[in-house]
Design a protein that fits this description.
Elements (H helix, E strand, L loop, with lengths): L8 H12 L1 H9 L8 H12 L3 E5 L6 H11 L4 E5 L6 H5 E8 L2 E8 L1 H8 L2 E5 L13 H4 L4 E3 L6 E3 L5 E6 L11 H4 L2 E5 L5 H11 L5 H19 L10 H10 L5 H8 L7 H15 L1
Parallel strand pairs: 1-8, 1-9, 2-5, 5-8
Antiparallel strand pairs: 3-4, 6-7
Amino acid sequence: MQMKEELPANIKEQLQKFQRNTTAYTELIREGGYMAPNKEIIIDAVTALLLGKNILLKGPTGAGKTKFAETLSYLFQQPMFSINSSVDIDAESLLGFKTLTYEDEKQVIEFISGPVINAMEHGTFLYIDEINMAKPETLPIINGVLDYRRSITNPFTNEIVTASKGFNVIAAINEGYVGTVPLNEALKNRFIVIEIPYIQGEQLKQLIVQNTKLEDEKLVDLFVKLSSDLIEAVAQGKIGEDAASIRALLDACDLSKHIPAKRAIQRAIADKLEEDREREFIMSLAETLFS
């Protein structure tokens, strides 16, 4: 892939080195790392992070967004602090909290750093999972962390914390799910968006072979076909995106090593769904493919 001339020389050098080093990435996939549906996803994410940009991984549930973040952490040999967003997340969950402790037998107040402060001070990656699950009024706390300032005034200590070199933010978003809210434009504009689609075909077959206990090639091919049918059904609005989760499909593959495939699909995929019509649709597909 040709590097754009606008990229600084050191960035181009690191990217070209990464592109040549396919052996390490192949080994990473074999050990359970993220398998990208195309090379551009990896290159674009690496480019953004090398330029000091925040990246937002956007895609359906079970497509591998968290696995991708872990893979980027591995590729950069960079530890990663994580935040699992929810409606209950608040400033203490992000930044830290004060607690009473003892020092030379005297009781003192100590501040315990949270994931944002830890990542900034140590110069590591910060991963915010399901960022749009957090309440809209909570996230503006870290706006200064996400823009050119890379700093924040800690409301618990009144200290200004500036991120050390190497600090980067990776966030993930599932749009349109229950409990999520749209990201406001001010927050979204602080990210480079990377779309993470489901992998299919030969890549999915390779993923199943390398990451599950299923060895029967005929069954593997049938599960690849099942995944393709589920993704198509999602596109047609027949079932929700969670029914086509690659994570759930891999669970079904593992189970089918020990129990009948149709029952594995029921346990790992169908029974997770709320609507009877969706469960029936999936089991009808399973009956057709695995009878």
